[in-house]
Specification:
A: alpha/beta, Rossmann fold, two-stranded antiparallel ribbon, 6 helices, disordered N terminus, B: 275 residues, alpha/beta, seven-stranded mixed β-sheet, three-stranded antiparallel β-sheet, 9 helices
Chain lengths: 205, 275
């Protein structure tokens, strides 16, 4: 079952169980960081990536279009109860929380903002940690608040892998620093290193 | 092991609520309901779902508050202005051909959408021939809807939404500001009925020309979504309209064939002519 052949290189990869999904949280400076992280991924990349970006809640976001134009993988806004497809990037729609159901479908919610944010990184990360357990990678990028720190801790508590953008390299370091404070076991990587790291976990086609 | 226990406790809690209070949350989206029950556990100082179950069964004051956690009531007047603009520009011309109209706002919460439609229908000259039903399972929310009172600090957003929806009047024509609150004009409720109705367990109660049910289905699992959409289908007249939330669709529903896309971008559907 274990796909060790396809997880070479990383010190982590060889001995651990396969990863089923990646979750990413970003705020201020998100567009540039996400483009740098996601654009180099090849079209053959097989893991789904679920993303929460803090946006103004005016409900029309061109972020998905912008990223989709730059990326080899498909990028789109998530729909309610959508099954998660491999090799697809799902963005939380503006003004909705994005959650993962226990049956690994996506769901949306208009519950109250968390950390003044809807969507909230914590909500995605905590529900994804429940659904995927150790088969999950959580990534915290640039941002000016502390959303995502609790969620990242939930991921490592469930046995998943935590990655934080190296704070000195982040456009705004508050979110990475907050995550590292609660979750010091997280790996700190540059965006370039992250892209390479994530590819090591992509199963074969 | 721990996870299995928690899952069992959760289903027992939902079963207890159903048995004692006749509210059935078993078909709700689990991720969201777990989060909200987690908040409720913090509020009531309960370590486990079992403790919360004990409280809710033996302390009658707990359930009404718990219901507030279980039902999400965050909305705005003219939320998603573009949706209301499409109703105004594309749906209203069809509705104008009927001598009398019925509209059902399913899951109306504190009434924001009912007032939005009442204002829109007045602006479009349809008010006198229209009856609007606003239904919800939360009695407290329905009381708020009846009262039509919203925090004054939400009014700038409502006003902006109304303007973007193509509003033909000033929102301030419809409310009186007093003591930090905006009290909406009673006349808007003249042709409006608020009523307790559950999409989980109740049946169709009227034939309507427009169902607006936005950001309600996202809290249901697919089976329950299908039940609700089935109710809408049975309730709608021939060529009637169904408006859903911006991120809800009929794509995964077994009733999808009964509807055609009317304004796909805005998730407005039209019931097919042949039953």
């Amino acid at each position: 079952m274990r796909e060790e052949v396809n997880e070479p290189g990383s010190a982590l990869a060889p001995s651990r169980m396969p990863v089923e999904a990646i979750v990413v949280g970003a705020s201020t400076g998100a567009l540039e960081a996400l483009a740098e992280l996601l654009a180099p991924l090849p079209a053959s990349f097989r893991l789904p990536i679920l993303v929460v970006v803090h946006l103004s809640p005016d409900r029309k976001s061109i972020l998905a279009e912008l990223l989709d134009a730059k990326c080899n993988v498909d990028v789109r806004e998530a729909d309610d109860k959508e099954p998660i497809e491999p090799g697809t990037v799902y963005l939380a729609p503006p003004d909705y929380h994005l959650l993962v159901e226990p049956d690994k479908r996506l769901s949306l919610s208009s519950e109250e903002p968390v950390h003044y944010s809807r969507p909230s990184v914590d909500v995605l990360f905590e529900t994804a940690a429940e659904a995927f357990g150790p088969r999950l990678i959580g990534v915290i990028l640039t941002g000016a608040n502390d959303d995502g720190a609790r969620g990242l801790k939930a991921i490592t508590s469930a046995g998943g892998i935590a990655i934080v953008q190296t704070p000195e390299l982040a456009h705004v370091s508050t979110m990475p620093l907050a995550a590292l404070k609660i979750c010091p076991e997280a790996h700190t990587l540059s965006l370039e290193e992250m892209t390479a790291f994530l590819q090591e976990f992509s199963p074969p086609q | 092991m721990a996870k299995t226990t928690e899952t069992l406790e959760l289903s027992l809690l939902l079963e207890a609520i159903r048995g004692q209070y006749h509210y059935d949350f078993r078909g709700y989206s689990l991720a969201s309901i777990k989060r909200r029950l987690g908040l409720a556990r913090e509020r009531f100082g309960c370590q486990t779902y079992s403790q919360l179950q004990d409280r809710v069964l033996h302390d009658a004051t707990v359930f009404p508050e718990l219901l507030g956690f279980l039902t999400v009531q965050v909305s705005e007047l003219f939320r998603d202005p573009e949706y209301f603009r499409m109703i105004r520009e594309l749906v209203v011309p069809h509705l104008k051909t009927y001598p009398s109209l019925k509209v059902w706002v399913a899951g109306c919460g504190a009434g924001e959408e009912v007032y939005s439609l009442a204002i829109l229908f007045r602006e479009e000259g349809l008010e006198e021939r229209t009856l609007i039903y606003g239904t919800d399972i939360n009695g407290e929310a329905l009381k708020k809807a009846e009262a039509g009172i919203y925090d004054l600090d939400r009014i700038p957003l409502f006003t902006e939404n109304h303007r973007k929806s193509g509003g033909k009047s000033s929102l301030s024509d419809y409310y009186t500001a007093a003591y930090g609150a905006a009290v909406f004009d009673k006349s808007l409720r003249k042709r409006t009925v608020f009523s307790d109705h559950s999409l989980v367990s109740d049946a169709v109660f009227a034939e309507v020309h427009l169902v607006s049910c936005r950001n309600v289905l996202i809290y249901f699992d697919r089976e329950l979504q299908d039940r609700a959409i089935g109710l809408f289908k049975d309730s709608l007249s021939r060529k009637g309209f169904l408006g859903l939330g911006a991120k809800e669709s009929l794509r995964f529903s077994r009733h999808a064939d009964a509807f055609s896309d009317f304004s796909a971008g805005m998730r407005i559907y039209q019931k097919q002519g042949l039953a």
